[in-house]
Amino acid sequence: xxxxxxxxxxxxxxxxxxxxxxxxxxxxxxxxxxxxxxxxxxxxxxxxxxxxxxxxxxxxxxxxxxxxxxxxxxxxxxxxxxxxxxxxxxxxxxxxxxxxxxxxxxxxxxxxxxxxxxxxxxxxxxxxxxxxxxxxxxxxxxxxxxxxxxxxxxxxxxxxxxxxxxxxxxxxxxxxxxxxxxxxxxxxxxxxxxxxxxxxxxxxxxxxxxxxxxxxxxxxxxxxxxxxxxxxxxxxxxxxxxxxxxxxxxxxxxxxxxxxxxxxxxxxxxxxxxxxxxxxxxxxxxxxxxxxxxxxxxxxxxxxxxxxxxxxxxxxxxxxxxxxxxxxxxxxxxxxxxxx
Length: 340
Known about the structure:
By secondary structure, the chain is of the alpha+beta class. The protein contains seven helices and 22 strands. The strands form five sheets. The protein has a six-stranded antiparallel barrel. A six-stranded antiparallel β-barrel has the order 9-10-11-14-13-12.
């Protein structure tokens, strides 16, 4: 025993007080430091490539705002279609304090993507990644301008993949498929901003915030992948995005075991409605048929079908596989163009 200032302290207690910090605490600190460095590096790489947008007003629409991501040195930026809806021009503000006038090059409401061009050149494009390679739980960083606060950064993880959002344009409606769900903090004004990986590659364009009563703290982003790159390319070239139209409505359904074993997958799209006069109606499809393929490509759900129904199928003969009365059938169909 040892007396210190009138207090008796045992040797065991004194040794316990001087024990080194447990190894686990050091590891936790190292992990947090690595996480912080990663988010900081992503922010440093991308802040100059994300702009704050203010779009002009018209007689029927007030001034709006959002974010946009630079994709070319000569001033092309991608944003959300709803950010620029009803506008033809506006202003882009960057983190270095510079501003540039913008014009809307093209917008596609059925994917909620748009392309604008900023005056001048010498911009810093963000590297684009592939959302198809994302994993649930992966770190992502959101950069945008929530509530008009330019250059805001938040981090989180990929909460889920393959979500869908309903988009509409005129009389046409479509599910935006493969949407990324994240818990990175998103707020109004983040729309059109970047969702990036730890490698500072943009894999999503933030599009929607899910609010109270639906899923507090969840945000959605349109993926950057082969399909959306083609849409962005068409918009950048000033072309309208064209899609093929089959004329059915439905949802995913399990297939009879015998059919599933013969084709190698377990689900298809049960037809719940057929539009009168549509290609599907002309081909003789009925409600309760289950679609399984288009020209041999698997159709497991609505997203699969929408990915296939590109401009290349407009006016083209295709073989549609479907199940009726527990048997597999094929019919020829000629798709028309989906009109908004």
